[in-house]
Amino acid sequence: MRSFDSAEELVSALRAGAVTSVESTEEAIARIERDDEVINAICVPDFDRARAAARQADEARARGEDRPLLGVPVTVKESYNVAGLPTTWGMPPHRDYLPAEDAVQVSRLKAAGAVVLGKTNVPLGLQDIQTFNEIHGTTINPWDHSRTAGGSSGGSAAALACGFGALSIGSDLAGSLRTPAHFCGVYAHKPTLGLAATRGMVAPSEPALPVDFDLAVVGPMARTARDLTLLLDVMAGPDPLTLGLAHRVALPPARHERLDDFRVLVLDDHPLIPTGSAVRAGVNRVADALIDGGARVERDSPLLPDLAEAATLYMQLLISGAVARFPTDSLEQLRTRVAGLSAADQSLDAVRLRAMVSSHRDWLETNARRELHRHAWRRLFTEFDAVVCPITPTPAFPHDHSPNPMERHITIDGLDYPYFDQLVWAGVATMPGLPATAIPTGPSPEGLPVGVQLIGPMYEDRTPLRLAELLEKKIGGFRAPK
Question: What sequence ranges are listed for the domain Amidase (predicted)?
């Protein structure tokens, strides 16, 4: 049974003739048909075309061809356009939308020889930390069915945890790669902003043009750290319609190859929200492994940008962009509510509310402040190679489908906090556009997966990815749910 083999292991087996793509694909399909009725990760299966692609992969290998993912079964987040399959983003008015061409990343997967098994479930409009929608229902956490798999790449994370393909591709604006990986015990990498082309990862109401939305990236998900690098190498590169006409990607190598050469800043406290005990323990497991491996570990630095201001900037950029793409129907009511806010109210709820009615001038001012933070990060990364910190304050939380997410809460060690405040840790990397690798650290006392993120310098994605590989050897990695 190879359902839980890494992509790297599967590629080696395919090259050695120990297994065929048809066999691997049939095994993945059988596992999906057996287990996914409960998990609901694969919302749009494409088994007939997958079988045909697997046969073609085996024929190509018999002719002596070799490509990075030739014959490897993979899944694709529902939000990517795949020609002939519906792209809905979970929005009922678009349940019948069929794109005419593949997203650029789907094209790259196929060119690399991957076998696409189907598409994975997402939340409505990709706008939640959970994965459920009216069209495709709810994706559950494979470790605890009463809890969420995370969002918005929750279907992809759950699929990997269950052995439904060796790799998946997702996207990340508010932790949408990292949070599901953290909740489901798998790996994910949020690339540097702009590293991987996003065309065709677009809402069905919008044309698939080469537009790079602020903060948003596409990236790889896998069951091992090395597989993230394998898939990122397929995904990286500008859009061939724009920058790709003149630019090529040449990522620098990792800063270090050995753990004892790394300089790491470890954070587990945020000024705006507490870190739950289970996640704090996960951060400390990583810190202990780093120290045991000889790395230089610090718990604080005067070079660290102000995390409270960073969270405010992130919320301003995130919410203003979301409202621009998905306009609200009650703009005047929002303006009235904002006018009633006290100037002294600087809570994240107030920040989000003000951002919904912000002007272009407001955005430019926020963006200028972001550039100051980016420069501060450059200075920090002259003294450190990576930053270890939480992804969210808790492991996977119970399903909460109450209709107004602004009225939901997240419970941290028995106390409630505003639901969207948990995004502040994701924003540490997202706001300045830094690369961040999500890795599992072991289970919580309740047996739930706990992950952390390794944040690296801009366009030095191989540095956190290499650190992830080294930590996988020290503390272990993916464990399949029982």
Answer: 23-463
